[in-house]
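User: structure tokens for Coiled-coil domain-containing protein 103, please.
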Amino acid sequence: MNAPRALQRHESMEIAFSRALELDRHRAAVDDAKKRAAEQRCDYQAFRQLVLGANLKPIEKSRTAAATTTSRVFHAAQSHDVQISNVAFDLRRPRASEVNGGGSLTAPSPRAPRTADEFARAWRRTCGTDDALKTQFLFDFPLDAFESVFKVEIGLDALRDFVRLIRARVERDENCVERAASILCALTRCGCFRAHLRLAGTATATAALETLRLAKPSDAVECARQAWGVAE
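Assistant: Done. Predicted tokens:
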């Protein structure tokens, strides 16, 4: 009488164990992909693709021959007709030929957010709560876009988060300090910067200033140090 129930419990345990094992494998694969991307100093798009493809498995040998033939045809066409953009974000307005299919074969780059709301949606959708993805997104974002995207205001939470991520990145790798300083300079030109910096407190200002002190001296860096020093 109890044999069917025992068998059912055993099968349920096997399923639960398999799911837990698969989850552990997924986490390990994602962590490994993040480490490889960091070692290779990938841009944001390459970083994201490595993470998304962490669970992909090699194709079977029986499919290799067909895939090789298809790849040769694709690359032959690509070398003659298709231009692939390596730009992480595209700030230009789309051309009519791209919108209406007017014959352009250029692969469009991901369009950069144009407003603070668009940035927030892209930030949440693309990065979630992953600080590594957030940092890569922030460092790949075009410098001249910060002022236009946050023209009205840069949010208090965003300002704190940006400085935290920038400081953490510089502490891990001082080779990126010049890019970090450029981002901090760009943030000073955003709307409501001074008001929200005062609300953010001295910890945020101090973290930004510590990063700027590591950068090469320049007029832009000096202006940024003065702006960030308001709340120190």
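User: Anything notable?

Assistant: The radius of gyration is 24 Å.
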